[in-house]
Design a protein that fits this description.
The structure is a homodimer. The first copy, chain A, has helices spanning 2-18, 45-67, 72-85, 129-139, 147-156, 170-184, 250-255, 258-269, 273-287, and strands at 28-36, 105-111, 117-123, 144-146, 197-202, 208-214, 224-225, 235-237, 242-248, 292-298, 303-304, 311-317, 323-328. Chain A is an alpha+beta fold. Chain A has one domain (26-328): (Glycosyl)asparaginase (Glutamine Phosphoribosylpyrophosphate, subunit 1, domain 1, 4-Layer Sandwich). In chain A, the strands form 2 sheets. The first copy, chain A, has an 8-stranded mixed beta sheet with strand order 4-3-2-6-5-1-12-13. In chain A, helix 2 runs antiparallel to helix 3 (72-85). The radius of gyration of chain A is 19 Å and the shape is globular. The model of chain A is unreliable at 1-19 (pLDDT under 50). Strand 7 (224-225) of chain A pairs antiparallel with strand 4 of chain B, so a sheet runs across the interface.
């Protein structure tokens, strides 16, 4: 509210003194497409270009909504929809396979203005779980719905269910076969778990929002709920601190309440968003051997994207309109 | 560890200088049986006595484990098992009915020493979900399992499933009928939601643990996940701050990340456990119209039990061995 008033007053001051055009709205968006063992030597140039292109498309889609004056929530959904619809990421279309050979998807969204939130977990027939999470937030008395109940709610809101075959991709199926094989041989899985997607946005009214969507982990046990749909763990937004979306080894993110811990360090210790996100991801999670990363954005448009893995698909369009898309640690 | 060393050194000093007996271990346990509209005028003396008796029994069971040198986790489980087995509380045997007439139970447990955690949600055939949550913590690669997957895991760990009829109580069935009737008439439900149970404990080695178990809310939608099984929302423990178990309108507890917020206020702002718990329950939750309460315990044995409802079933045995059991606000 203070920010809103300040920007109204600022705009008034400009128009009365210099008759300037209305300044471009101070908006920003940050996205991720998962953290993990992403190495240049294991990536073909074409595949790498595909990732960069899709991340750019998602950023532009979200940013366009913000420039049109839409809510941060709209931008988060617009960006994530594009990543969910791409087979490249472990969310929506490209979701990994659980141990029983099914795809079970999770998503959450949170509004930093009202602290409203919606989350779904274990859905098997919803192409765009982020959309369903938003419907839960806006039209359900509950915050979090699982599986069949979430799909029942989806139907009641006019969402068409898709067959499981919609989520089939050969790449993910081979990952499951490899993970099962490794499990049979009692070896630690080497299947990379990257690919969760997320977005955080700041709209022209100073409101923050965060969203995350995932297929979970390859070969996960039936009914496993990861951090992505858990408010405070993988997803959190509060205008008073920041918006956060996480990606990584979900169990560690749950136990460390990662997203809310970042917000708390800002709110209660006065850390900047960069300091808070780095402290949690590069210190606390590392001590606890929790692999992953986060994207975080504060109400002034400051951006943090720390990760403790070799790579994280990520990008932003900042308040100055500057676009960046990155994959590896040294970018 | 520091506490442990200090108490070992303290014990050594005592034995060498005054040949005193080993001091009684400094242990404590706090429990709740739900917050809500609990009024003396709506309670028969016999029913009230029943609640007080069962709370006392649970406290003594947990405390006895602590005196025997058991882990805080053991005490939490011992206390909650007694409350789950009683038809008086909305957990285990006395669980409320969901909208489809089934009982869907949730529970979580967390170890403040290791930050390990286990949670189950939506289980329909497990008499003691707190026991299953502990097995998830100790024997699953995952932190949180839902429904069928959680029951599959239960079977794999040798837990016998019970039929849904185990959870039938006339009292809870009538609550569902009343809630359905009120919904048909589009009236706000007046069915009290109290009865979630929880425990927090401090063992002789200075370790904290927290656990929560619930049947959720009467007439809840299929697949609804409340705050109890969500680490950071309804359940949290960290030796560095406190152990917390919550009870109330779960959706508000999720959005406010209640348990972790209390821990963060202690850790990052230096508040005492009483100050932190009261700030969250009596200020922040009240502003957001989130009804409920928490029990909280720090590593020095300080206890907080704030609630913003007319009553909360609660009690403790503190470090001095003092036992108290309370129901109404003015006790």
């Amino acid at each position: 509210m203070r920010r809103f008033l300040a920007s109204v007053l600022g705009a008034l001051a400009m128009t009365t003194t210099v008759h300037a055009q209305e300044p471009a709205p101070e908006v920003a968006i940050v996205i991720h497409g998962g953290a993990g063992t992403i190495l240049p030597e294991e990536m073909s140039p074409a595949r790498e270009a595909g990732f960069r292109e899709k991340l750019t498309e998602a950023l532009r889609a979200g940013h366009a909504r913000l420039e049109d004056g839409a809510d941060a929530l709209d931008a988060v959904v617009a960006a994530i929809l594009i990543l969910e619809d791409s087979p490249l990421f472990n969310a929506g279309k490209g979701a990994v396979f659980a141990s029983d050979g099914a795809n079970e998807l999770d998503a959450a969204i949170m509004d930093g203005r009202s602290l409203s939130a919606g989350a779904v977990s274990g859905v098997r027939h919803v192409a765009n779980p982020i959309e369903l999470a938003r419907l839960v937030m806006e039209h359900s008395p509950h915050v979090m719905l699982y599986g069949e109940g979430a799909e029942e709610f989806a139907l009641s809101r006019g969402i068409s269910l898709v067959p499981q075959s919609y989520f089939f991709t050969r790449h993910r199926w081979e990952e499951l076969e490899k993970a099962r094989d490794e499990e049979l041989q009692q070896r630690k899985s080497t299947v990379p778990q990257s690919g969760t997607v997320g977005a955080v946005a700041l709209d022209a009214r100073g409101n923050l929002a965060a969203g995350t969507s995932t297929g979970g982990t390859t070969n996960k046990r039936l009914g496993r709920i990861g951090d992505s749909p858990i408010i405070g763990a993988g997803t959190y937004a509060d205008n008073a601190s920041c918006a956060v979306s996480g990606t990584g080894h979900g169990e560690y993110f749950i136990r460390s309440v990662v997203a809310h811990d970042i917000a708390s360090l800002m709110r209660y210790q006065g850390l900047t968003v960069e300091e808070a996100a780095e402290k949690v991801v590069l210190e606390k999670l590392v001590e606890r051997k929790g692999e992953g990363g986060v994207i975080a954005l504060d109400a002034d448009g400051n951006i943090a994207m720390p990760f403790n893995t070799p790579g994280m698909y990520r990008g932003y369009i900042d308040k100055a309109g500057q676009l960046a898309v990155k994959i590896y640690a040294d970018e």
